[in-house]
Amino acid sequence: MSDELSMHLLTTPLLHRLLTFNSDPRRARTTGLALLALLAAVMVTHMVLDEFLLHASAFGLAVYLIGNRVLRIIPQQVPDPGVRKKVRNVAIFGYLSFGFGYLVWLMDDWLCRHLTTFRHSVGVPFAFFTELHGWWHVFTAVGGYIAVSVVDTITSGEVRDDPVESLAWPVPMAARFVSGATAAKKDEKN
């Protein structure tokens, strides 16, 4: 259960920061209390009733809201078009990583019995690929790091310089990959 609590302990502060960006202290307090009440309700329901659907839906909604809000704030906070594109690409990469991790986590929950049987039949080293719970941690860790970094960057003031290269691996590499893929598509059109 603590594994699942950490999911909401990541998304709730990010939501608070994004929902109260450029707002007055009263709204920030009210939003914080509302998010705290929602977090408590979801976690108590999940832990006491061993209820999965509310927990999974709340997390999925939080990831969606974070991604949506980040992509709406980036144009306001990043005036340079080149830097804006890089930050947006990194945000999208993080959002997709988070979303893929979430999908893998759901598949692991729903297919656990079948995956365990399959894992035993294929054996090592191929069983490694069916450890979806482990892959969930990898993808959400990358997505979570990017979310925290991007949210902190865009809500700490106007972004003038490219922050992407100062982020931890694999973010700069992913940004170059995504930018390269975008540039290749443009070259194909011309």
TrEMBL record:
> A Gene Ontology MF term for this entry?
hydrolase activity, acting on carbon-nitrogen (but not peptide) bonds, in linear amides
The family database entries (InterPro entries) matched by this protein are listed as:
ACER
**Looking at the UniProt record for this protein, which Gene Ontology cellular component terms does it annotate, in alphabetical order?**
endoplasmic reticulum membrane
Compartments it resides in: Membrane
Q: Where does Zn(2+) bind?
A: H133, H137
Cofactor(s) the record lists:
Zn(2+)
One Pfam family name is: Ceramidase
Transmembrane residues, as ranges? Answer: 31-49, 55-75, 87-107
User: GO biological process: any one?
Assistant: ceramide biosynthetic process
Indicate yes or no for the key word Metal-binding. yes
Keyword terms of this UniProt record: Hydrolase, Membrane, Metal-binding, Transmembrane, Transmembrane helix, Zinc
Q: Which domain of life is it from?
A: Eukaryota
What membrane topology does the annotation report for this chain?
Answer: Multi-pass membrane protein
Task: State the similarity comment.
Answer: Belongs to the alkaline ceramidase family.
Q: Under which name does UniProt file this protein?
A: Alkaline ceramidase YPC1
Q: What is the lineage of its organism?
A: Eukaryota, Fungi, Dikarya, Ascomycota, Pezizomycotina
